[in-house]
């Protein structure tokens, strides 16, 4: 008799500790992904590397690009300012491309 008179109660409590230990190991494994505290270098790609996003404009610098991006956001067009190998670009989805180009050309 390991737990005294009632061995069933002893084994139930022991199994509870075992279940908690297994869950702790699983959670530790699941959330131990990226242990690096140092930011990785950003990958700068070509204009074609951005999937569904198309180039709406090519600003001279990031300040001008951010102003253009804010103008597009003001009219309801989702836009991204990204650094490509050929310089900063304003990227929008293809269905918004004509409207974005018209908006940017009319506001210059």
Please specify the SSE layout and strand pairing.
Elements: H1 7-30, E1 53-57, H2 62-74, E2 79-84, E3 87-93, H3 97-106
Brief synopsis:
It contains three helices and three strands. It is of the alpha+beta class and 108 residues long.
Describe the protein in words.
This protein is α+β, with helices and mostly antiparallel strands and 108 residues long. It has helices at 7-30, 62-74, 97-106, and strands spanning 53-57, 79-84, 87-93. It has two domains: 1-31; 47-106, 2-Layer Sandwich (Alpha-Beta Plaits), CATH 3.30.70.1530. Strand 2 and strand 3 form a beta hairpin. The model has no long low-confidence stretch (mean pLDDT 87).
Q: Indicate how many domains the architecture comprises.
A: 2
Fraction of residues in H or I helices: 40-55%
Rg, nearest Å: 28 Å
Mean pLDDT: 87
Which features characterize this protein?
about 110 residues, alpha+beta, Alpha-Beta Plaits, about 45% helix, elongated
């Amino acid at each position: 008799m390991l737990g005294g008179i009632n061995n069933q109660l002893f084994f139930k409590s022991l199994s509870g500790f075992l279940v908690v230990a297994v869950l702790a190991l699983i959670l530790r494994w699941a959330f131990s992904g990226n242990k690096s505290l140092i930011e990785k270098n950003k990958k700068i790609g070509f204009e074609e590397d951005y999937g569904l996003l198309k180039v709406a404009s090519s600003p001279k610098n990031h300040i001008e690009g951010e102003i253009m991006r804010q103008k597009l956001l003001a009219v309801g067009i989702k836009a991204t300012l990204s650094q490509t190998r050929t310089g900063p670009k304003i990227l929008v989805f293809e269905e918004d491309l004509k409207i974005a180009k018209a908006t940017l050309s009319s506001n210059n």
